[in-house]
Amino acid sequence: TWKWVVGPMFLYLCERLVRFWRSQQKVVITKVVIHPFKTIELQMMKKGFKMEVGQYIFVKCPAVSKLEWHPFTLTSAPEEDYFSIHVRIVGDWTEGLFNACGCDKQEFQEAWKLPKIAVDGPFGTASEDVFSYETVMLVGAGIGVTPFASVLKSVWYKYCHDATNLKLKKIYFYWLCRDTHAFEWFADLLQSLEAQMQEKNNAGFLSYNIYLTGWDESQATHFVMHHEEEKDVITGLKQKTLYGRPNWENEFKTIAGNHPGSRIGVFLCGPEGLADTLNKQSISNSEADPRGVHFIFNKENF
After folding, report:
1. Fewer CB within 10 A of the end CB, N or C, for the chain?
2. pLDDT tens for residues 138-163?
3. Residue 134, CB half-sphere, CA atoms under 13 Å: how many?
4. What positions does the domain FAD-binding FR-type occupy (predicted)?
5. Which of 37-41, 165-169, 278-282 has the lowest average pLDDT?
6. What CATH number has the domain spanning 24-123?
7. What is the pLDDT of residue 187?
8. pLDDT tens digits, residue range 13-44?
9. What is the 3-state secondary structure (H, E, C) of 175-241?
């Protein structure tokens, strides 16, 4: 038995040593941005740090807890000179990080007063394969939208600097959430991309749909009263917010009709139930003919 145990144990110990060494490297917080609804953005730098789109890291703040490591999706693009995470304040640890960064104070905080941070990672996810397809469907549910902040930023950087060599030609983005207020920072990102793409005369490169799954009667009344306005009253985007859940069968059939004979990547970050639905639709809408349209499903669950 020991012959079968020694090898895996040796590899495991090597992996733990590498992770310990990486977590001891110096991390500098360059900027702390406070977003609405108690969400903070930490922009950091670390020597030798290299990332790909959609990856995540483990973060430890000794000032809050000397033992706790928490996973966060990277929301920056590889093309940026820093890496960032967005943290929503929903528990004891995140509350402690919020206070340690001085976000509970009104006055400006000096950089040297910011807490020490340890970072382990980055670690890969399915989203890294986005650039392997000409057409992709990105589906984010709730907090699952965070990996696609990195993807959309990186796509835009690549498009601006070398659009001719970019294989990805069309993005269909779906965002399902009960309440957009907690993710106003992401709506701001979409607004920026929308404006920049119009300047480049390529507004059709990104098609996005925002579905509000949790809404009350007052919101519905407000929506009806302002429906004719140029921009959406909730997100400020030209694309109007939709209410309820998408009809996935219709969405898949429409996209298949728009891109015959293509391999279409379907990327989800969301709950298991939605993953089952999208997987079934990917299979049922893929053609048996190798020259026909094929949907390739990729997921990460939370």
Report:
1. N
2. 898 877 788 888 888 888 787 777 66
3. 10
4. 19-129
5. 165-169
6. 2.40.30.10
7. 75
8. 998 888 888 778 888 888 888 887 788 889 89
9. EEECCHHHHHHHHHHHHHHHHHHHHCCCHHHEEEEEEECCCCHHHHHHHHHCCCCCCCCCCCCCCCC
Residue spans per domain, the chain: 24-123, 125-298
- What one-letter code names the amino acid at 246? P
